[in-house]
Amino acid sequence: MAQTIVIPASLEQRVSWKTTLDAIVLTAGVTNPVSIQLTPVVTDATPGAINAAYYRWIIHPLADQEEKKILWTTESIEVPAGAKTLDITIDAPTKLRRGYYLFQLILEDAEKKPTASYNTYVSVNNAIDILPDNPYMSLESVRTQFADISFQDNRLLDSQEIGTWDICEAVKRTIEQWNNTAPRLRIYTGDTFPYPEILRRGVIYMLLQTLCTMLNRNRMTYAAGNASVDLEQRVQAYQALLQEYRAIWIGGMAQAKNEENLSDFYGSIGYY
Questions:
Q1: Do the Cβ atoms of 98 and 34 come closer than 8 Å?
Q2: Is residue 133 a part of any domain in this protein?
Protein backbone atom coordinates (compact mmCIF):
# COMPACT_ATOMS: atom_id res chain seq x y z
CA MET A 1 0.00 0.00 0.00
CA ALA A 2 1.31 3.44 -0.93
CA GLN A 3 2.24 5.72 1.90
CA THR A 4 -0.04 8.72 2.38
CA ILE A 5 1.48 11.88 3.78
CA VAL A 6 0.21 15.40 4.35
CA ILE A 7 2.59 18.27 3.67
CA PRO A 8 1.22 21.72 4.57
CA ALA A 9 2.22 24.71 2.47
CA SER A 10 2.76 26.64 5.72
CA LEU A 11 2.51 26.15 9.48
CA GLU A 12 0.93 29.59 9.80
CA GLN A 13 -2.58 29.81 11.27
CA ARG A 14 -4.56 32.89 12.18
CA VAL A 15 -3.93 33.90 15.79
CA SER A 16 -7.10 34.51 17.78
CA TRP A 17 -6.10 35.20 21.37
CA LYS A 18 -3.83 38.14 20.62
CA THR A 19 -3.35 40.54 17.75
CA THR A 20 -0.47 40.03 15.37
CA LEU A 21 0.36 41.46 11.97
CA ASP A 22 0.73 39.76 8.63
CA ALA A 23 3.98 39.11 6.78
CA ILE A 24 4.56 37.99 3.19
CA VAL A 25 6.02 34.53 2.57
CA LEU A 26 7.67 33.96 -0.83
CA THR A 27 9.30 31.16 -2.77
CA ALA A 28 12.35 32.11 -4.84
CA GLY A 29 12.24 31.07 -8.47
CA VAL A 30 8.50 31.40 -9.05
CA THR A 31 5.85 34.09 -9.45
CA ASN A 32 4.18 34.70 -6.08
CA PRO A 33 0.63 36.14 -6.07
CA VAL A 34 -0.08 38.34 -3.03
CA SER A 35 -3.30 40.16 -2.13
CA ILE A 36 -2.84 43.23 0.05
CA GLN A 37 -5.51 45.06 2.01
CA LEU A 38 -4.78 48.39 3.67
CA THR A 39 -6.43 49.41 6.91
CA PRO A 40 -6.05 52.42 9.22
CA VAL A 41 -5.77 50.30 12.36
CA VAL A 42 -4.99 46.63 13.02
CA THR A 43 -8.43 45.84 14.47
CA ASP A 44 -10.31 47.20 11.43
CA ALA A 45 -11.26 44.09 9.44
CA THR A 46 -13.27 45.93 6.77
CA PRO A 47 -10.92 48.21 4.84
CA GLY A 48 -12.51 50.59 2.36
CA ALA A 49 -11.49 51.62 -1.14
CA ILE A 50 -7.81 52.44 -1.60
CA ASN A 51 -7.39 56.20 -1.88
CA ALA A 52 -4.59 56.37 -4.45
CA ALA A 53 -4.08 56.53 -8.20
CA TYR A 54 -0.91 54.42 -8.32
CA TYR A 55 1.21 52.19 -6.11
CA ARG A 56 4.66 50.62 -6.17
CA TRP A 57 6.51 48.31 -3.84
CA ILE A 58 10.12 48.00 -2.71
CA ILE A 59 11.95 45.20 -0.91
CA HIS A 60 14.90 46.16 1.31
CA PRO A 61 17.45 44.13 3.30
CA LEU A 62 16.47 43.43 6.91
CA ALA A 63 19.01 45.27 9.06
CA ASP A 64 19.07 48.76 10.50
CA GLN A 65 22.14 49.82 8.52
CA GLU A 66 20.82 48.55 5.18
CA GLU A 67 17.13 49.40 5.11
CA LYS A 68 17.53 52.21 2.54
CA LYS A 69 19.11 49.85 0.01
CA ILE A 70 16.71 48.62 -2.68
CA LEU A 71 16.97 44.95 -3.61
CA TRP A 72 14.15 44.90 -6.14
CA THR A 73 11.11 47.03 -6.92
CA THR A 74 8.46 47.91 -9.50
CA GLU A 75 7.46 50.93 -11.53
CA SER A 76 4.24 52.71 -10.59
CA ILE A 77 1.15 50.53 -11.14
CA GLU A 78 -2.36 51.93 -11.57
CA VAL A 79 -4.83 51.25 -8.77
CA PRO A 80 -8.15 49.96 -10.21
CA ALA A 81 -11.07 52.30 -9.51
CA GLY A 82 -12.77 51.46 -6.21
CA ALA A 83 -10.30 48.67 -5.42
CA LYS A 84 -10.21 47.48 -1.82
CA THR A 85 -7.45 44.95 -2.48
CA LEU A 86 -4.17 45.20 -4.39
CA ASP A 87 -3.51 41.95 -6.20
CA ILE A 88 0.21 42.03 -6.90
CA THR A 89 2.67 39.48 -8.23
CA ILE A 90 6.21 39.25 -6.91
CA ASP A 91 8.60 37.52 -9.27
CA ALA A 92 11.19 36.35 -6.77
CA PRO A 93 14.35 35.60 -8.78
CA THR A 94 16.01 32.21 -8.53
CA LYS A 95 19.22 33.89 -7.33
CA LEU A 96 17.39 35.39 -4.36
CA ARG A 97 18.76 34.17 -1.04
CA ARG A 98 16.39 32.57 1.44
CA GLY A 99 16.07 34.91 4.39
CA TYR A 100 14.18 37.86 5.86
CA TYR A 101 13.53 41.24 4.25
CA LEU A 102 11.52 44.45 4.63
CA PHE A 103 8.55 45.16 2.31
CA GLN A 104 7.44 48.74 1.63
CA LEU A 105 4.23 49.59 -0.25
CA ILE A 106 4.03 53.20 -1.46
CA LEU A 107 0.76 54.85 -2.55
CA GLU A 108 0.93 57.66 -5.10
CA ASP A 109 -1.38 60.38 -6.42
CA ALA A 110 -2.28 61.05 -10.06
CA GLU A 111 1.12 62.71 -10.58
CA LYS A 112 2.89 59.66 -9.11
CA LYS A 113 3.98 61.55 -6.01
CA PRO A 114 4.08 59.47 -2.79
CA THR A 115 1.13 60.00 -0.46
CA ALA A 116 1.45 57.12 2.04
CA SER A 117 3.72 54.23 2.96
CA TYR A 118 2.87 50.83 4.48
CA ASN A 119 5.47 48.39 5.76
CA THR A 120 5.68 44.72 6.65
CA TYR A 121 8.16 41.85 6.49
CA VAL A 122 9.02 39.34 3.77
CA SER A 123 10.24 35.82 4.46
CA VAL A 124 11.75 34.01 1.47
CA ASN A 125 11.15 30.68 3.13
CA ASN A 126 11.60 28.36 0.15
CA ALA A 127 13.46 28.22 -3.15
CA ILE A 128 13.12 26.16 -6.30
CA ASP A 129 16.90 26.03 -6.72
CA ILE A 130 18.51 26.58 -3.32
CA LEU A 131 21.66 28.64 -3.54
CA PRO A 132 24.85 26.96 -2.28
CA ASP A 133 26.38 28.27 0.93
CA ASN A 134 23.15 29.94 2.04
CA PRO A 135 22.66 29.05 5.73
CA TYR A 136 19.04 29.69 6.60
CA MET A 137 16.77 29.49 9.64
CA SER A 138 13.31 28.51 8.42
CA LEU A 139 9.99 29.63 9.87
CA GLU A 140 9.08 25.99 10.48
CA SER A 141 12.19 25.35 12.58
CA VAL A 142 11.11 28.10 14.98
CA ARG A 143 7.53 26.83 15.14
CA THR A 144 8.53 23.23 15.80
CA GLN A 145 11.11 24.13 18.44
CA PHE A 146 8.59 26.49 20.02
CA ALA A 147 5.92 23.72 19.85
CA ASP A 148 3.47 26.18 18.36
CA ILE A 149 2.17 24.53 15.19
CA SER A 150 -1.53 23.80 15.72
CA PHE A 151 -4.44 24.62 18.01
CA GLN A 152 -3.90 21.25 19.69
CA ASP A 153 -0.45 22.47 20.82
CA ASN A 154 -2.18 25.28 22.72
CA ARG A 155 -5.08 23.54 24.43
CA LEU A 156 -5.75 26.36 26.88
CA LEU A 157 -5.38 29.12 24.30
CA ASP A 158 -7.29 27.73 21.31
CA SER A 159 -4.78 29.30 18.92
CA GLN A 160 -1.15 29.72 18.09
CA GLU A 161 0.87 32.20 20.10
CA ILE A 162 3.12 33.57 17.37
CA GLY A 163 2.64 34.61 13.76
CA THR A 164 5.08 34.97 10.85
CA TRP A 165 5.29 38.71 11.49
CA ASP A 166 6.33 38.01 15.08
CA ILE A 167 9.13 35.70 13.89
CA CYS A 168 10.34 38.25 11.33
CA GLU A 169 10.34 41.01 13.95
CA ALA A 170 12.35 38.74 16.28
CA VAL A 171 14.83 38.06 13.45
CA LYS A 172 15.27 41.82 12.98
CA ARG A 173 15.83 42.43 16.70
CA THR A 174 18.24 39.49 16.97
CA ILE A 175 20.39 40.63 14.04
CA GLU A 176 20.34 44.23 15.25
CA GLN A 177 21.58 43.07 18.65
CA TRP A 178 24.34 41.09 16.93
CA ASN A 179 25.34 44.07 14.76
CA ASN A 180 25.43 46.43 17.73
CA THR A 181 27.37 44.12 20.08
CA ALA A 182 31.15 44.50 20.20
CA PRO A 183 33.34 43.48 18.53
CA ARG A 184 31.54 44.85 15.45
CA LEU A 185 33.57 43.06 12.81
CA ARG A 186 30.91 41.94 10.34
CA ILE A 187 27.48 43.41 9.75
CA TYR A 188 24.79 40.92 8.72
CA THR A 189 21.28 41.25 7.30
CA GLY A 190 18.24 38.98 7.33
CA ASP A 191 19.50 37.06 4.30
CA THR A 192 23.22 36.88 5.12
CA PHE A 193 23.33 35.81 8.78
CA PRO A 194 25.52 32.68 8.64
CA TYR A 195 24.59 30.86 11.88
CA PRO A 196 21.04 29.41 11.69
CA GLU A 197 21.10 27.72 15.11
CA ILE A 198 22.42 30.81 16.88
CA LEU A 199 19.78 32.90 15.11
CA ARG A 200 17.04 30.44 16.14
CA ARG A 201 18.11 30.72 19.78
CA GLY A 202 18.02 34.50 19.58
CA VAL A 203 14.65 34.54 17.83
CA ILE A 204 13.03 32.28 20.45
CA TYR A 205 14.56 34.44 23.20
CA MET A 206 13.07 37.56 21.61
CA LEU A 207 9.66 35.87 21.19
CA LEU A 208 9.63 34.72 24.82
CA GLN A 209 10.64 38.21 25.92
CA THR A 210 7.65 39.68 24.08
CA LEU A 211 5.24 37.04 25.40
CA CYS A 212 6.42 37.50 29.00
CA THR A 213 5.94 41.25 28.73
CA MET A 214 2.40 40.82 27.43
CA LEU A 215 1.43 38.14 29.97
CA ASN A 216 2.79 40.15 32.89
CA ARG A 217 1.01 43.25 31.63
CA ASN A 218 -2.32 41.37 31.53
CA ARG A 219 -1.82 39.21 34.61
CA MET A 220 -4.61 39.01 37.19
CA THR A 221 -5.99 36.62 39.79
CA TYR A 222 -9.60 35.46 39.72
CA ALA A 223 -11.15 34.55 43.07
CA ALA A 224 -14.35 32.59 43.62
CA GLY A 225 -15.27 31.55 47.14
CA ASN A 226 -12.21 30.08 48.85
CA ALA A 227 -10.41 29.36 45.57
CA SER A 228 -8.28 31.69 43.50
CA VAL A 229 -6.83 31.16 40.04
CA ASP A 230 -3.88 32.99 38.51
CA LEU A 231 -5.03 33.39 34.93
CA GLU A 232 -1.52 33.89 33.55
CA GLN A 233 0.54 31.71 35.88
CA ARG A 234 2.25 30.17 32.84
CA VAL A 235 4.31 33.35 32.61
CA GLN A 236 6.53 31.87 35.33
CA ALA A 237 7.39 28.91 33.11
CA TYR A 238 7.96 31.28 30.19
CA GLN A 239 10.30 33.40 32.29
CA ALA A 240 12.37 30.32 33.12
CA LEU A 241 12.56 29.47 29.41
CA LEU A 242 13.38 33.10 28.70
CA GLN A 243 16.43 32.96 30.94
CA GLU A 244 17.52 29.64 29.42
CA TYR A 245 17.30 30.92 25.85
CA ARG A 246 18.90 34.22 26.79
CA ALA A 247 21.92 32.34 28.13
CA ILE A 248 22.36 30.11 25.07
CA TRP A 249 21.75 33.04 22.69
CA ILE A 250 24.25 35.35 24.39
CA GLY A 251 26.73 32.48 24.79
CA GLY A 252 26.43 31.43 21.16
CA MET A 253 26.80 35.00 19.96
CA ALA A 254 29.89 35.56 22.13
CA GLN A 255 31.53 32.33 20.90
CA ALA A 256 30.82 33.08 17.23
CA LYS A 257 32.06 36.67 17.53
CA ASN A 258 35.21 35.42 19.25
CA GLU A 259 35.81 32.94 16.41
CA GLU A 260 35.31 35.68 13.82
CA ASN A 261 37.67 37.94 15.76
CA LEU A 262 40.39 35.27 15.84
CA SER A 263 39.86 34.47 12.17
CA ASP A 264 40.28 38.11 11.20
CA PHE A 265 43.35 38.41 13.43
CA TYR A 266 45.08 35.38 11.92
CA GLY A 267 44.21 36.58 8.46
CA SER A 268 45.83 39.99 8.99
CA ILE A 269 49.40 40.86 7.99
CA GLY A 270 50.35 43.11 10.84
CA TYR A 271 49.29 45.62 13.47
CA TYR A 272 47.89 49.08 12.84
A1: no
A2: no
